[in-house]
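name: query_chain
kind: protein
chains: 1
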Amino acid sequence: MQKTDVLIIGAGIAGLTTAIKLAERRKDLDITVFTKTIKQESNTKYAQGGVAAVWNHEIDSYDKHIGDTLDAGDGLCDPEVVSFVVKEGPERVQDIIDWGARFDKSIESNQYDLGREGGHSENRILHFKDITGWEIQRTLSDRVALLENIKIHEHYFAIDLITQHHLGQNITRLRDDIRCYGAYALNTKSGNIETFLSKVTVLATGGSGQVYRNTTNPVIATGDGIAMMYRAKGRIANMEFVQFHPTALYNPAGENPSFLISEAVRGFGAILRRVNGEQFMEGYDARKSLAPRDIVARAIDSEMKKSGEDFVYLDCTHLDREAFMEHFPNIYEKCKDVGINVFQDYIPVTPACHYICGGIKVDYKGRSSIKQLYACGECTSSGLHGANRLASNSLLEAMVYGHRIHANILEEIENYKIDNKIPEWDATGTTQPKELVLLTQSQRELKEIMSSYVGIVRSNVRLKRALDRLYLLYAETERLYQSSVISPQLCELRNLITIAYLISRSAAMRTESRGLHFTTDYTYKNNFIEETLM
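structure:
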């Protein structure tokens, strides 16, 4: 049994921002961070485009960024959240610059080279080549190494949040006094399940993209935090809003994760084309290839259904070679590796699951419905993204909420004590599973169910079929969980089934088409889009 003042589950931008700010303000606090692989591996690392912030006030304004975010969110954003995230954003970006982040600058002016992506009315994306997430993760990891009161536990897989349930109390979703006392975690090196008790806990576990067959998310993105929160009877919201990035590189051989062709490439001037070479986005939105992601993804899905092909094309052949190589060196090299010369050949692209806009419901200070438990980053539903996330707002949200959470923890932490009555994990009666193929096959079935029935375009019939099949997988996996020694593979499968259920059930409950949730059974507010896609 281990004790810590603050337990942070997740080592991406949300978790490490919170940890660094706490450690710098209160050197007497013990801060423990879990990562289920190594500290450099997170969803953050895979972010290509950049971070959106109002930087050049001569051409941009808070009102413009707020307006773009609200427009993308299709009426479901919390306006107050949008306002404070946008207005606090530049200061939080400056924090990470002060910590050593190197965003690209123009050689001529020595000012930041601001990019533009779909849904943005101005150039406001700070970036580092086409690997902005890698640069941010490097910066955060280097900063953490300087702070002695942060302990990073690599290869620790959080299994469950500890609440009054583990003290023998009956916990239901109707209770408003559920408390979090820490978490049980599997040390994947030793195989032991360890108990971590804390005054406050922060979930920063990232996304859930591995619930789909094609995803740009790393293999660790299995929705662990959201699933733990649901099992702990906490509030979850807006899970039906799954963002599919329109332009993942199509690879007929299969690739997990799918390689992302950043939206910044379209912001740079690339054009979407049908397989016959014709442009098509003008038929779906006046912004053409720079429309918000939900519109572009549905348009591509529609074009693929019409042509029978598994991809459309992204045309970069007309773009300036030297400038493209400067901005997108890794995209260029990846395409080259698979035999595509981006200056002569069109790039085949297809939508892939990219971001979960729903998740753990949090308030303006990052507090969840469970006391002493905070959450930030992609695992949350903060009100910023609404029905569809505006490109490059996710890193911004993580930094702003990380700052707000650290401030509230400093105000509240002296009110909490560590509960010493928590029992150790009980693995009595469990045995090693005889066939791991049961886990791998179930995960494969899960991905097929979600990709076929709960994808970009949905219907009541498809959702009913998905829920029926998911229940069978759930029952089988729970029996296995109750009788088997815990493993990361089993826990991830269990979490993914929970995520799949939450997405499917939430989608079935929303009797309208809005943002990222498009169903053929209910009308969409834009009649032209409805007629094009039905």
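note: The first strand starts at residue 2 and ends at 9.
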